[in-house]
Amino acid sequence: MKKALILSVTLLLLSAPSIASNQDRNENRIAKLEQQIMLLSKQVQWLQKQIEQEREYQSNNNHMYQCQLAAFGNEYIGRSSSRGRAVTKAVEDCNEAQSAMFCRPENVKCVKY
């Protein structure tokens, strides 16, 4: 009986450090998960804001922009309901054919229809 009691006490004493290390690991895992949840929550809020802005943008667009960029006798045209997107399309088309130094957004001329 004494041997069984001594063995049980010894096993309990030996398992105490492993219980503490498991608890530390669990606390670290929980802290990491909490950080990930915070990051994901911020990302979800950002995405919801983007969706809201896109819906607002789509409901307010009853017009089109046609933007032109001329470089070395060639004209590059971009069309979109967003002026920025139309400018970007014209500049990207120009960049594919010419050097970037000749395809500057400030040289683009746009007309709203």
In summary, what is this structure?
The chain has 113 residues and is an alpha+beta fold. The protein has helices at residues 2-59, 83-97, and strands spanning 65-71, 74-80, 109-112.
Note the main attributes of this structure.
single chain; 113 residues; alpha+beta; 3-stranded antiparallel sheet; 2 helices; rod-shaped
Structural summary, described in words:
The protein is of the alpha+beta class. It is 65% helix and 16% strand. A 3-stranded antiparallel β-sheet has the order 2-1-3. The longest helix is centred in the N-terminal third of the chain and has 58 residues. It is rod-shaped.
Number of strands: 3
Structural class: alpha+beta
Number of helices in the DSSP assignment: 2
Major sheet: arrangement of strands = 2-1-3
**What summary fits the major beta sheet?**
3 strands, antiparallel
Percent of residues in helices comes to: 55-70%
Average pLDDT, rounded to a whole number, is: 82
Tell me the strand percentage band: 15-25%
SSE arrangement, N to C? HEEHE
Q: Write down the overall geometry.
A: rod-shaped
Give the uncertain stretches in residue-range form.
none
**Distance N to C terminus:** 97 Å
Rg measurement, Å? 32 Å
